[in-house]
Amino acid sequence: MTSVAMVEAVSLAMAWEMASDDSVVVMGEDVGVNGGVFRATSGLEARFGDQRVIDTPLAEAMIAGLAVGMSAQGMKPVIEAQFMGFIYPMVEQIVCHASRMRHRTRGRLSCPMVLRAPFGGGIHAPELHSESTEAIFAHIPGLRVVIPSSPARAYGLLLAAIRDPDPVVFLEPKRIYRLNREEIEDNGEDLPLDVCFVLRDGTDVTLVSWGSMIKETLESADLLATRGISAEVIDVATISPLDMDTIIESVEKTGRCIIIHEAARMCGVGAEIAAGLADSAIYALHAPVKRVTGYDVIMPLQKMEMNYIPGVKRILTAVEEILEVS
User: Fold this and answer.
1) What mean pLDDT value characterizes the chain?
2) What is the distance between the alpha carbons of residues 207 and 200, in angstroms, rounded to a whole number?
3) Which of 124, 154, 184 finishes a domain?
């Protein structure tokens, strides 16, 4: 067993797959010699060589286009966008080509590629470095969108993403890259995609979240327990396709649901979850579904950053509000 932070778990997963499968290559800006902005690819070039860990020019559209072509011809590229804010030049290739490859070729070709990107706020980054725009990709048919919330889930989910025969957008919450460490057995065992993880059982309210916000969600559940309130905590993990069955099952037990995410409220993934509950669990709800989210403004710079990101106080207030509804 090895005690690792999330960013190290990401590196372990890539190294395992590269050692096990010669078709896996890593590409991106500064991923080789420098080991990436956050050092997620540190040591990979020394171990696997510069033919499999490829430092690219500063050209995101080219990186994504190259990955599409390579994956369609049998390779398994894992590409990195240095920050979520740099991912947008890649969108044309990912949306118009990668996501449609299987459909366009009637199953003759697939596109087994992974697009990794650090995302979210909380590290005092400058402008264009703190977005949480996962809903953009969740809206695209043919893409999987995966967001880990712990070192163990980062390791297992990234392994599964690399092994998936279709494109996966793998978003890594940089605020928790080095927040805590977890014991991981580096054995190549993956975790299932397309399912939620129930992190804590409860009977009074369901708290649904993903990525870095799992930290505040679990802290809120701990504080609620001291008040005699039992909160079930669900980590969505794969936001597209969405495992509504697990969420519905929980809400049918608790009767109340709060969805917590860092992204802006408007058209966020939380809205889709709330709509799913309205469709399939409306008679189980004792109170309206509430969302605790970021605001519909640009992520502010350092001084106001943590006022934007939902905190424990806002989550507890939302719980108090729905518990007051009979």
Assistant:
1) 96
2) 10
3) 184
- Full domain range(s) for residue 105: 2-184
| pLDDT tens sequence across 147-166 | 999 999 999 999 999 999 99
The answer to whether 149 and 158 have CB atoms below 8 angstroms apart is: no
Is residue 192 a part of any domain in this protein? no
In the set 97, 124, 129, 286, the catalytic residue is 129
Cβ neighbours around 107 below 10 Å, total: 9
Q: Do 165 and 291 share a structural domain?
A: no
pLDDT category of residue 128 using cuts at 50, 70 and 90: confident
pTM (two decimals): 0.96
Answer yes or no: 97 catalytic. no
| b/e per residue 214-228 (b: at least 16 CB within 10 A) | bbbbbebbebbeeee
Residue 88 lies in a domain: yes
Per-residue confidence (pLDDT) for residue 126, from 0 to 100: 82
Residues 120, 6: Cα–Cα separation, whole Å: 15
Contact, 143 vs 137, CB < 8 A?
yes
| Residue 294 is assigned to a structural domain of this protein | yes
CA 60 to chain centre: 20
